[in-house]
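User: structure tokens for Pyrroline-5-carboxylate reductase catalytic N-terminal domain-containing protein, please.
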Amino acid sequence: MSIAILGGTGPQGRGLALRLARAGTPVVIGSRDAGRARAAADELNARLENAAAIGGDDLRGAVAAADEMVILAVPYAAHDATLEAIRDLLPGKILVDIVVPLADGDPKRVDMPAAGSATEAAQALLGDAVPVVGALHNVSAVTLNDLDHPINCDVLVCGNDLAAKEKVIELVRRLDVAAYNAGPAVNARCIEAITPILIRLNISKKVPFTHAGLRIWAPGA
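Assistant: Done. Predicted tokens:
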């Protein structure tokens, strides 16, 4: 199964491409600039051994190459425009929206769209023919790119299509990460809003670590 990552030249997308390819899943990075995407793919492939291939193409080429899932990892400012550019190619595929609508100039705050969250905005824009699943909102890009260490958090997955959520949960678990069904798309409002809280903690001089994540603990653990 080949996965497309739109915005794959950015830190979050690059980290996901590395992790997925190392787990054996072929990836195609999508960018507005196909040459930039191919250059990023070559750079990432050079970091990996015994991994699935990472390719690069423009946005539409990457989506066309995806068998079933397209991960949206662009900055929020490009969220809707990117979806508009590829929406006709998405029926029959699952859109995994990892975008967080951070406030312009202040990543310690969210600026939610009228739909309530980026996940809900994507579902409203694409319609019911394309299942949208929100996931991977709270994972540090630095953590994703640091292949010498495991991912240090769990992943909350939300959306209105149960079958699509289960497929995304299965994909995330390939990264040796616990993933949980966190309910319908409306719950993305809570999940996306956790990210600026983590950013605030991670840059605080009073917190003795950085790149913290969210973990679900069992009682007594």
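User: Anything notable?

Assistant: Residues 123 and 132 are 6 Å apart (CA to CA).
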